[in-house]
Each structure stands twice: as C-alpha cells, then as structure tokens.
Amino acid sequence: MLQYIIKRLGSMAVTLLVIITLTFFLMHSIPGSPFNEERATSEAVQKNLESYYHLDEPLYVQYFLYLKSVATFDFGPSIKKSSQTVNEMLGRGFPVSFELGMVTLIVAIFSGILLGIIAALRHNGIIDYLAMTIAVVGISVPNFVLATLLIQQLAVTWGLLPPATWASPKHMILPTLALATGPMAIIARLTRASMMEVLTQDYIRTAKAKGLSPVKIVFKHALKNALLPVVTILGSLAASILTGTFVIEKIFAIPGMGKYFVESINQRDYPVIMGTTIFYSTMLIVMLFLVDLAYGILDPRIKLHKKEGK
Amino acid sequence: MEKVLEVKDLHVSFKTYGGEVKAVRGVTFDLHKGETLAIVGESGCGKSVTSQSIMRLIPEPPGKFDGGSIIFKGKDLTKLRDQEMRKIRGSDISMIFQDPMTALNPTLMVGDQLTEGILQHMKVSREQAKKIAVEMLDLVGIPSPHIRLKQYPHQFSGGMRQRIVIAMALVCQPEVLIADEPTTALDVTIQAQILELFRDIQKKTGVSIILITHDLGVVAQVADRIAVMYAGKIVETGTRREIFYQPQHPYTKGLLNSVPRLDVDGADLVPIGGTPPDLFSPPVGCPFTARCPYAMEVCDRVYPEKTTLSDSHGVDCWLQDERAKKLLASR
C-alpha cells in the first residue's frame, strides 16, 4: 500500500510538471503581453518593466527561472496588482473556493445517492419518475441559468435568502444549490442504474434467504457494490464542480479563486495564470488519487499494489 | 414418519410480455424429518420456482402465487406477513443456491456474511456469533477458519465457496435445507466432496433436505425419496429404489435412459425426443403426451389421476389404468 502511494505521488509530480510546462508555453504563445495596453507607456518604462519581470530573457530561461521559484512554493508577484503576490491571492481565495466546492460536493454526493436509491427501490413508480425528472432537469439546465433563476425567485421575489456575496451560512445556500444540482443529478441517475442491477444479483437473493430486513439488504449488501461506478465518476465530477465555481463565483460575487483565474487570463498576468492553474491541477490530481484509494477500500478485489493474489 | 413440510397443490405463475407462464401447476409433496427428497426434472420444469416459493423468494411482480398451501410447523407459509416470513428464512428453512461464484457478496468479508444470519435470528453476542461461524466452517471442512473469516469471497475456490454457502445456510440449525442444484456449477471431484458433506451434515444435525437437481447421478448417491417433475407438475414420486428400479412414468423411464452409461459396453445414449410443452398455454391433458411413446387418445384430453402403487410410490399416468393395459395388450 505504502509502495503504491509513493509510486502515485511520483507520477503525480510528473503530471504536474507536464501541466506546468504546457501551460507555460501555451500562455506565452498567446499574442500580447501584460504591458500591451491602450494607455501609452514610454519605451524606457516598458523596457524597465520587462526586465524587472524577466520578460526580456529568452523563453527557456524564463521557464527555468519559474520552475526554480515554484520548487520553493513561491509563485511570484502579480504583474497587474503589483502590491500582491500570487501566494497571497491564493491564500485569500482558496479557503472560500474550497469551502464552496466541498459543501457542494458533499451535498451532491449525499442527495444524489439518496435520490438514486429511492428511485431504484421504487422503480417505475411515481417517486422514481419524479426523482428522474428532477435528475434530467438537473443535468440539462446549466448552472449559470439555474443560478439566475434561483436568485430571481428565492432572493428577489420571495426575499428568503441573500442574493449574493459570502458572509454567513445563509449566503452559501444559493450558490451551493446552483452548483450541486448538476452533479447530484448525474450521481442520482448512476446510483439508480447500478442499484437496480445490483439488486438482481444472486448475493442479494442469498441475503434475503438469510431473513435479513430490506434496510439491511440495501445498505449493507447492495449499496457498497452499487457505489463502485459512482466513485469512478467522482474524480471527473470534482473537476466539473471546480470549473463550475468560476462562473458561480462570478454570479454570486464570491471572493474565491475563480475571479483571479478569469481576470488573469484576460490581462495576461502570467504569474497569476500559472499559479491558479497549478493550484487547480494539484487539487484535481489529489482528488483523483483519493478516488482511486476509495475504490480499493470499497472493492477488496481491486488490489492497489501489484504482485499479490494471482 | 413425521412430516416437516407439506406442500399442497401449489400454483405459481409469471407475468411476462408474452403472456402468463404457468410455471408450477399444482405441486404436492411432503418432506419427512431427516430425509433427503430429490426433485428432479429437466430445465424449466419448475423445480427452482417450487423451491423458491417455499422460501417466498419469488419476486412479485412478475411472479404470482396462484394458490395452494405450504404447511410448516402448523403454519401456512403462504399466508404469513413478510415480517413473520423473515423470521423463518435462514433460521427454520434455509437455502443453498446454484452458483457459489455469485451467491456471496464480493465486497463483504466471509465472516461478516456468516455472522449476520446468526445475529439476525439468535440472541447472541458478536463474539459468540463468531465462535459459531468458526465451528460451522470447521464442520464444512474449511481449514484454519479463524483466518478465513477475515477473507473475501474472491480468495476462495469454487468448491470452498460452496462450502461457505452451505455453512451460511446451516448456521442457525434449520430444520429444512433447500439445495437448488448445489453441485451443478462444480467440477466432478468437488461434487463428490460436497455430496459427502451433505450426508455427513444430515447425520450430525438431522436436517431434512430438499435437493433440486437434474443430475440423476447425484440423486442416486444421496436421495432417500425422489419426486420427478415435468412441466410444472410432479408426475412420479417414490423411494430411490422404486424410481430407479421400477420407474412407471414414461418420462421417468426416458430420463433414466438418457443417462450416459459407462458400465454397459456399446450402450447407446437415448435422448427423450421433442421438447417440453409451452407453459404459456399448458396442455389440458398429460403434458408429456407429445413426447410419449405410449401416448393414447385419452392422454391428450384428460390429466390422469394419481395412482398409488405403494405407500411411497405414486404416479400420474393413464398407463396405470386397467383399460390401458388391455389396449396395449391388443396392440
């Protein structure tokens, strides 16, 4: 197990290096620079700025300089907001984004699985149709549309919840709802399908033949098996929630990382682009790693380390 | 002989897109204490449906109980509420299924799957349950049971898994054990071991066994009595000796003839021609008529009454009628 984790950490580092390299060169291949603005700057000032940020050096030198600073976890200063470093920006934005993402993920997973189980147990009944209708709507309505509808109804018309910003748990409800509905719907559909399949398996009949109660059969015998496909997509779902946060943060004026990410690209703020990209990639890679670990725990047949068993 | 279980005139059908399949059409049999009753017949004759009906494990829908009674300890199982039935399942009557590879939950430890039945039905602590599980694994011949309890089904071979399934069925010391083709999925050497195990356990615990199989070799080894099933009906019942040496129903004879023989040189394999009838619209008369070499006009029109040949031997066939004997003699 430990050997597997060490191996994975190694490959994660390589993946990250590839991402850094690709992003770095892609970013510099986009025309324009941080100092290309309508406001005219004198040539001398421009030269000075460029040399300060090492932009006058050849690209490969810049690349290695950047790698060197990343290795010490220093993502450099922001070019556009010269008083701040990228580290500071991430430090401020990350807790907010993380909170939103995690709450969303938890809400989506639990409500999705619950909805899926209920639908599977009552399949082709009214509850099933209701649950699956919600699921289809959840999948097909984009979260930014849902977000605006929610704000309009719950915040503006009924005045139940605050329409934007990030101050109290009450403020979290709308953005979480907008962000969680899509993933929840996907999880619900998947859980329903795999639950229905598992419930026809022979070992479920064996469990029934032992005289176990329906609750025990569903939660002890069926659920663990039914969740395997759900766990598989959790990695990519986490990714979609992460990227979904850009838009949702913008709509609800949430001071997370998404804002920095989008702005930095428009403004060619190279260090910020790199910093946020690295940060998001790291989170995603770690998430996928955790999913793989969870897989091994759920299904004993999956051996995470080789050279055992057959 | 004390009767443990009485099945009377059991009818079960299934709703399908093609119509209603009448899978079991009036099955009646008794199970005596400490005996092994074998129900034999070809695929699709209703053996498994009969056995699963006793446990009330037929999913409804599409399954449908159409009538009859199953008397166990003075109670009619068909009339019990689900909750009462759950108390009987696994504790008084338990069941072994055909395929040991799929009958165990792949994601739960074997020990867990063994003890949950004990904890469900007996008032014992977790520790005691574990002790019982270890004893049971020992009884079915699994070495070092303490270690094995913490393993998962995929770490066992097919024969070992069937032993675990058997142990699981026996943990609560049931009075009736229903074994639905317990050896079909196993290879021959393991089959012999498992059958040996059945005999052994019956001697030790006095459990009554209903053995469902299509393998007459298995029947010859372990059955005390045999019920031959065809197209949802039991067509002949008798002791092992009666069925093997004096089979009366043409279907029973056909079954026995279609067993490959190694002890007779150059013996031909004689299959029963034709296929079983369509149970969407089962025939009014004897369902075997179309395949029967002795078929008479009456066979197609009226189902024969049961003829009792001895205390244990009974057969549903028109050939037993006096008039039929005359007719055949004149042919």
UniProtKB/TrEMBL annotation, chain A:
Main localisation: membrane
Membrane-topology annotation of the record: Multi-pass membrane protein
Regions that span the bilayer: 12-30, 100-122, 129-152, 172-191, 226-248, 278-298
Record InterPro entries: BPD_transp_1_N, MetI-like, MetI-like_sf
Pfam families per the UniProt record, alphabetical: BPD_transp_1, BPD_transp_1_N
Keyword line: Cell membrane, Membrane, Transmembrane, Transmembrane helix, Transport
GO biological process: transmembrane transport
Domain of life of the source: Bacteria
GO cellular component, one term: plasma membrane
Subcellular location(s) of the protein: Cell membrane
Domain ABC transmembrane type-1 as annotated: residue spans: 94-295
Family to which the UniProt record says this protein belongs: Belongs to the binding-protein-dependent transport system permease family.
Protein name: ABC transporter permease
Species, as recorded: Mesobacillus subterraneus
UniProtKB/TrEMBL annotation, chain B:
Record-annotated ABC transporter domain positions: 5-256
Subcellular compartments: Cell membrane
Gene3D superfamilies: P-loop containing nucleotide triphosphate hydrolases
Lineage top rank: taxon: Bacteria
Organism for this UniProt entry: Mesobacillus subterraneus
InterPro entries tied to this protein: AAA+_ATPase (IPR003593), ABC_Ni/Peptide_Import (IPR050388), ABC_transporter-like_ATP-bd (IPR003439), ABC_transporter-like_CS (IPR017871), Oligopep_ABC_C (IPR013563), P-loop_NTPase (IPR027417)
Leader sequence residues: none
Annotated Gene Ontology cellular component terms: plasma membrane
SUPFAM superfamilies per the UniProt record, alphabetical: P-loop containing nucleoside triphosphate hydrolases
Keyword tags: ATP-binding, Cell membrane, Membrane, Nucleotide-binding, Transport
Major subcellular location class: membrane
Protein name, UniProt field: ABC transporter ATP-binding protein
GO BP terms in the entry: peptide transport
Protein topology in the membrane: Peripheral membrane protein
Family (UniProt): Belongs to the ABC transporter superfamily.
Molecular function terms, GO-annotated: ATP binding; ATP hydrolysis activity
